[in-house]
Structure formats: C-alpha cells, structure tokens
Amino acid sequence: MLVIYHTLPTPIFYKGFQAKYEALCGGLLEQSEGTIQSPNYPDEYRANKECIWKISVAPGSQVALTFQAFEVEYHDNCGYDFVEVRDGLDLHSTFLARLCGYKIPEEVRSTSNHMLVRFFSDSSVLKMGFSANFVTEVDECADESHGCEQKCVNTIGGYKCECSIGFELHSDGKRCE
C-alpha cells in the first residue's frame, strides 16, 4: 500500500491526516501453489465480509487445500460464519465442504483443476479466521506405474500402497504378503 501526503499552501494550518483502509480479499489465482487467508488474518476478520477465491492449476491435475490455522465462529450447521469449498469455479459447482469452528479441517481436494473457496462472515461474532495453502496435486494412482500390488492411495505430493484385509505390506512398501 502506498500513501502519498501533500500539503497545500493555505493560511490555515492543519496537523496530521486521517486515513482508512480495508483489506481486500478473494480473487482469481492461476498458479501452481499459494496461500489464501481470511481478511486481516491473524487478527480478527471483519463483520459482513464475503471473499471468493477461484483457484486454477494445470489441466489434468487437482487442487489440494490444506489449512494451517482455523478459527471461524462455530455453529452446528456453520450457518453464521463459514468457509465453503466447491469443486469448480462458480457457486453452483459441486459442494465439497462447509467449515467452521476451531479444529483444523482435513485436507480438501478437487476432482478437476479448479476449486472455489468462499469465506463468509455475518454481523456479529468475529474470530481469527484461517490460513490455507493450496498446491497442484497429481493422482499418482491413476495409471499402473505406481507398482502397488493391491491398493494405491493417492496422498498430497505422492501415494502409498495398502493391502486388503488379511494381508500385510511388505518392507518394500509395494507388495502384500
């Protein structure tokens, strides 16, 4: 933010100045990774705010959203303040999650290369808000090159092999015995 202060030559002299600002939020993010935060984070977010982030990563991949901090007014159905995540770029895209409270949520992953994150606050209780990272996620289990004998489980940044009930994973991390 840049503030430029000019004085005008007048016979009346005033001291100082007054300024007001408001944090902007939301936007279109076309990048492989990044961070999104509620307005004013880590201080309390403002009342009556709505922020919408539209995230796009490389085609053929997914968006993985991981929260580092989370404190949003709690209500049984998250009806007051909330973070909503959708699988696409608009508010009519498939619903993935509606989050509120004080516990850091599980990771949220899109099925395509697009994700919409919406933050909403009502007019009353204010909290710290949230900070979340998003990354480009590739499904390493999509083809057979992973080498898992029975089950491949995609994780952020990689994958892990698992075995069916009654089998144990071999020390090589791939075969089941």
UniProtKB/TrEMBL annotation:
Residues 25-137 form the CUB domain. One of its GO terms (cellular component) is extracellular space. One of its GO terms (biological process) is proteolysis. Coiled coil: none annotated. Transmembrane segments: none annotated. Keywords: Disulfide bond, EGF-like domain, Glycoprotein, Hydrolase, Metal-binding, Protease, Repeat, Signal. SMART domains: CUB (SM00042), EGF (SM00181), EGF_CA (SM00179). GO terms for molecular function: calcium ion binding; serine-type endopeptidase activity. This is Tolloid-like protein 2. It comes from Trichonephila clavata (Joro spider). The gene is tll2.
